[in-house]
Amino acid sequence: MAFQLDSDASLLKPVRIGDVVAPNRIFMAPLTRSRAHADGTPSDLATVYYAQRAAAGLIISEATAVSEAANGAYVNTPGMYIDRHQEQWAEIAGAVHEAGGRMFVQLWHVGRMGHPDISGAETVAPSAIAANMAAHTPSGKSPLPVPRALRTDEIAGIVADFRAAARRAVDAGMDGVEIHSANGYLLHEFLSDVTNRRDDSYGGAPHNRARLTAEVVEAVVDEIGAGRVGLRISPGGSAGDMREVDEVSAYEELLTRIAPLGIAYLHVLIDPTTPTFGALRALWSGPFILNTGRDTETDFCQLESFAEWGAISAATVGRAFLANPDLIDRLLLGAELNTPDVATFYAPGPVGYIDYPTLAELEEPQSA
Ligand SMILES: Cc1cc2nc3c(=O)[nH]c(=O)nc-3n(C[C@H](O)[C@H](O)[C@H](O)COP(=O)(O)O)c2cc1C
After folding, report:
1. Which residue range forms the structural domain that includes residue 238?
2. Which residue lies with its CA nearest to atom 29 of ligand 1?
3. Cα 313 to Cα 326: distance, rounded to the nearest angstrom
4. Can you give the residue ranges of the NADH:flavin oxidoreductase/NADH oxidase N-terminal domain (predicted)?
């Protein structure tokens, strides 16, 4: 695939996102790559990988656990809850900044998507409803267990874990954090009418289902400042065996409640042709970042139109950035893009991680 952006394209214009000015509006989407050490410390390969992609307007990191119990959806995913994690994230922040980039760390709790054989911890969720899916554990594929419903008195601890991880991210030199409330993980599970059947103040009516994500956003804003906080949601998305019946009301409550905080951005994974997109877009006056999340290749033509009309402040691109460290240059030149290799998305090691060639490397004469 090739697509050429004019040098005066809207996607190539700078945009202010909270405390950061991004030089272009093509951001790198969060991508779990399963290359961290078993204790959740990112590897040195991650430093190379992210620095290679520093030309993105903003890099949003792979999902990163706020506590040991918050991890466990995939093997070898990183954390941000001990000093060793923070020190390695500081290396990454330094390398990305040195290469001219900007970076937020995405923070998650995996909720019912966690498997005890990966996390070593009990799987917890808003309600005892299992995802009808399997996890890839160290000993092979295994169905996700029925989670234990969190007690009301445990929820403040989860909010505190997000707050503490955000503090660590900023202390590591990151430009901010993105709170992951999408794709069927814990915060999304609370928002959803399918996975949240609670009868306390965190369940039932839409404003109750929105409460946990809102409290996390409020706590993280209080800790590191609104200009360094983004939020990702995926209303109506099917990832994580999640299909909300009412995909609007809890999100309306959430966006209305957090709007006065003035966070850096709202990042929405959604088909922009749906009525839900229109309803939620109209509710948000701050920076709005879109990820169209289709199975097909990124439609840069569509994204450029949205940016031109002012419907979006920026777009995140996942697989195309994964496979093209020099994506921005290629779009400017209208060059062919490397094809992402699905087989190495979550495989260990450098192959399919830091060895996707830039255009310049492809054009170098091969030595005999
Ligand atoms: C390998 C892979 C890992 C992903 N990991 C995450 C993640 O850690 N956090 C997240 O919010 N979304 C994650 N996603 C979803 C992407 O952020 C994005 O929404 C999806 O790839 C669609 O965008 P694209 O068409 O530009 O690739 C992942 C997607 C892929 C392909």
Report:
1. 10-363
2. 31
3. 21
4. 11-334
